[in-house]
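Quick note —
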Amino acid sequence: MNILFLEDEPDLAEQIQHFLQKRGYVITLTSTLAETLQHLQNRQFNLLLLDRLVPDGDSVQHIADFKAHHNGPIVLLTALGQTINRIEGYQTGIDHYFAKPVDLDELHIVLQNLLTKFNSQHAESNPDWQIKQKVLYCPNLQTLALSSREALVLAFLMEHAGQILDKQTLLNALTIDDEEYDYRRMDSMLYRIRKKVAQVYEGSFPLETIHGLGYSWMRD
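Predicted structure written out below.
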């Protein structure tokens, strides 16, 4: 599981990163709100672990911005531990609020439980391939960030599952003028999507290229 961890105290960040990595998590560290948002715009994470007061602001004031690019659990880990501070956090819709210092074993259990619950709910409601807000959800619950154009093409193919769609049809769906478009860019884009999927999903990806005809999202 991938966790994006915002913490501007280097020693604490390293301690928690090392602890969680030993328990199988992949940790990406950031130290500012801007850096955190940039990561969320470029890729997907299973969980956000956020300090509150960092050099460029209070993360509580930016939870809505984070949620625009992230739909998994969000946990705050901060020195602001008074009741009013906790209420401020929970009012934004976060999933858990830790006050420093935190017991690392407790942190691990809470993160584990939140991820298990989220993945279970997601599996029940989305048992197959899904696209939401430029994010591709694989059947194994892994996620991939897509560009706007990648998301539009895949969503269109999924909507017409079982049909063979030629490049002209896909370009029309994207409202692209075919006279100004190099068709090889479509091939390259779909090739990139396949490579992204192969990095996180070992099963068969139902996007098929039918030589001389076009592309198809194959039905199960």
